[in-house]
Amino acid sequence: MVKWSLGVAVSLAWLVAFGLVVEGASGLGTDPAAFNRQLEAALAANSMDVLGAVAAEDLKFTLNTGGAWNRTQWLDFMSKAKFASRTLVGDQVEVHGDVVIATARTHIKYVDPSRRASEQVQQRVYQRRPSGWQLVSLRTLKEGPVPASPR
Q1: Which end of the chain has the lower number of beta carbons within 10 A, N or C?
Q2: Phi-psi region for residue 38, left (φ > 0), alpha (ψ -120 to 50) or beta?
Q3: Residue 135: enclosing H or E segment and its boundaries?
Q4: Strand blocks (E) in the chain
Q5: pLDDT tens-digit profile of 57-82?
Q6: Above 70 in pLDDT, residue 97?
Q7: Residues 122, 142: Cα–Cα separation, whole Å
Q8: Angle at Cα 41 formed by Cα 7 and Cα 145, nearest 5°?
Q9: What class, spelled out in words, does domain 2-144 have in CATH?
Q10: Domain ranges (residues) in the chain
Q11: Cα torsion for 130, 135, 139, 143, to the nearest 10°?
């Protein structure tokens, strides 16, 4: 289990040190699973530089309600999102040549106490383009309460 809350500043320093921010979209490198975890850290930290660099111009974000946003709408939403923590509790990553499909299960706690914590399952599709790896599709498959911990 990977937890991103108080360690977000350290995570962002790590992202810069290992090239995701510097390289922008080409930072996927040889380990797509690590890149997916790095993206989760950038989401938790509201790191707009990272998110803007990785989001493709034709990014489509599909909400679990059926609505869809373009890149500008998604980045605007993310710039206002305030997370107390985002914990990546599971991910599956498939590599298909120039396409990577990642499914991430994340527990999210918000700064706003009126918003309940939730578990979100997202499908993320990255594509290698001439400028490097880009996030081209982000789809929330499921969102609901965080399941109770087994005792």
Answers
A1: C
A2: alpha
A3: strand 132-144
A4: 2-4, 55-62, 68-70, 83-96, 99-110, 118-129, 132-144
A5: 999 999 999 999 999 999 999 999 99
A6: yes
A7: 7
A8: 95
A9: alpha beta
A10: 2-144
A11: 170
